[in-house]
Amino acid sequence: MVSVSGVRGRVGEALTPEVVTRFAAGFGAWAKAKWSAGTRASGRCRVVVGRDSRVSGPMFHRATIAALQSVGCDVIDVGLAPTPSIQLAVEHHDAAGGLAITASHNPIEWNALKFIGPSGLFLDAAEGTEMRGVVESTVPRATWDALGAVQLDEHAIGRHLDAVLSLPFVKVDAIRNRKFRVALDCAHGAGGAIIPELLKRLGCEVHAINLETDGRFTRPPEPIASNLGDLERLVLESKAEVGFATDPDVDRLALVSDQGIAIGEDWTLALAARLVLKYRRGPVVANLSTSRIVDDVAKEAGAHVVRAPVGEVNVAMRMRREGAAIGGEGNGGVILTEVHLGRDAPVGVAVLLQMLLEDNAPLSAVVARYPRYVIVKDKLDRPNAPLDAVYDVLRQGFRDAEADTQDGLRLSWGDRWVHVRPSGTEPIVRVIAEAPNAAAARELVTRSRVPLDALGR
Ligand code: MG
Q: What count of other Cβ atoms lies within 10 Å of the Cβ of residue 151?
């Protein structure tokens, strides 16, 4: 499956070293052409390469490096690292781009190549299309005397940690003195290479599972509440004040409360915003499928939420344009401009501990202060006909709703919304609704499916 920001597949089926080298070489040629045309084109064109912990990671890592060398790009190899550490390394080295070998939260049989532009952001739609054009053309290969060189960089994670610990509103000494008791589940992902060290530097007593960075996931690696039973038990057994769970490439963070309940990854951004909005003005940027709990938190702080199309790069670019205080996604992705315009679980951990420190209340009590919502998600095969007719029917049927057409159709009311959008990576349409209770959310989904099902028949 190819999208603007990456190519992914099941290892040994659609995703082979041949496919990976083809895309990596095309990406390298694209990045090199951009680099040569740019203003910073002194020195050599360099591309950062890193990978998460997946079993297939080392194989694709070697294939990726070879492909980049073959088109004359020098490689800065950061090895096993979280995706946000790789993005930061692209910026740090002033590189022409980066390749992250990770299938993020997808199950063990998947892997993927994700394309990072020279600013450290994932490629946007225009860049992705342009790059795909190069992949599909005949990519010029370097002769023996023009092959790229490989340089190791073992400090990507260390620099990332330093950046997180120097966030202006994270008071490291105060957090250290508080000696939080924390439970942690890194799902055998790259989180094991950064989060334990971060918690150690923040003076936490850590009770952890699944820290081995071997990619042998013992649970489904997406940090959604239903996958966090072991962490819930660990929180209760260890009497931890909070449980942190990360996905394999460490851009998503989910929380378990002191009562041993996974509160849902929508809360991560909302609670991070609760802290950050104390320190600075500006909107919160979230995507159109993010829980409205973030609206409640923003409103309480006198701020508002700006919605962007789904996709990390869309949120990142909107944050830049709006001068956002904070941004992210309801899937546990927190973005702070100071560190980097990308979702970053270590940022989330530090900000959440500072929030708990300042609130001086159990996490469960903080959450209980806010309204409760239930999100219901559904998906169906994408009809062959355009979806505009569906959107028209829905807008007619829900005349009292506020409509947002940036990315599919999102209809919203004071305390509920429904979002219908075609997936960017799969031939499906997603229908997501949120309401104060499950029955109301399900009803929104059911009603929104009617014109879709009619179109599909
Ligand atoms: Mg991820």
A: 11
Strands 253-256 and 305-308: unpaired
What separation in Å is there between the alpha carbon of 190 and the centre of ligand 1? 10
Q: Which of 368, 385, 417 is the last residue of a domain?
A: 368
Task: Lowest mean pLDDT of 40-44, 65-69, 324-328, name the range.
Answer: 40-44
Q: How confident is the model at residue 40, as a pLDDT? A: 66
Dig out the tokens for 266 from the structure: 């929508």
Report every protein residue that has its C-beta within 5 angstroms of ion ligand 1: 104, 247, 249, 251
164 and 150 assigned to the same domain = no
The two tokens of residue 218 are 């013992």
Q: Helices 293-300 and 266-279 sit at what angle, rounded to 10 degrees?
A: 10
pLDDT tens string 223-262: 999 999 999 999 999 999 999 999 999 999 999 999 999 9
Give the range of the structural domain holding residue 300, as residue numbers without chain letter: 159-368
Cα(150) to centroid(ligand 1), Å: 26
Cα(428) to ligand 1 centroid in Å equals 21
Same domain, 108 and 204: no
The arithmetic mean of pLDDT across residues 290-311, rounded, is 96
Predicted pLDDT at 42? 67
Percent of the chain with pLDDT over 90: 92
| 124 plus 80 within the same structural domain | yes
Whether 325 has a pLDDT exceeding 70, the answer reads yes
Tokens 């990770």, located at residue: 102
What are 424-440's pLDDT values in tens digits?
777 899 999 999 999 99
Same domain assignment for residues 273 and 174: yes
With a threshold of 0.85, does the pTM exceed it?
Answer: yes
Instruction: Provide the edge-to-edge strand list for the sheet that holds 253-256.
Output: 205-209, 181-185, 242-246, 253-256
For ligand 1, the distance from its centroid to the CA atom of residue 35, given in whole angstroms, is: 28
Catalytically annotated residues: 104
Number of domains in the chain: 3
Beta-carbon contacts of 358 under 8 Å, excluding residues fewer than 6 positions away, are: 275, 278
Cβ neighbours, 10 Å, residue 238: 16
The answer on pLDDT for 191 being more than 80 is: yes
The two most distant CA atoms of the chain are separated, in Å, by 67
Q: Give the distance (Å) from ligand 1 centre to CA of residue 408.
A: 23
End-to-end CA distance of the chain: 25
C-alpha distances in angstroms, 382 versus 183, 269, 271, 429, 456? Answer: 41, 30, 35, 5, 7
Beta strands in 325-427 (DSSP E): 326-329, 333-335, 374-381, 402-404, 409-412, 417-422
CATH number at residue 190: 3.40.120.10
132 shares its domain with 166: no
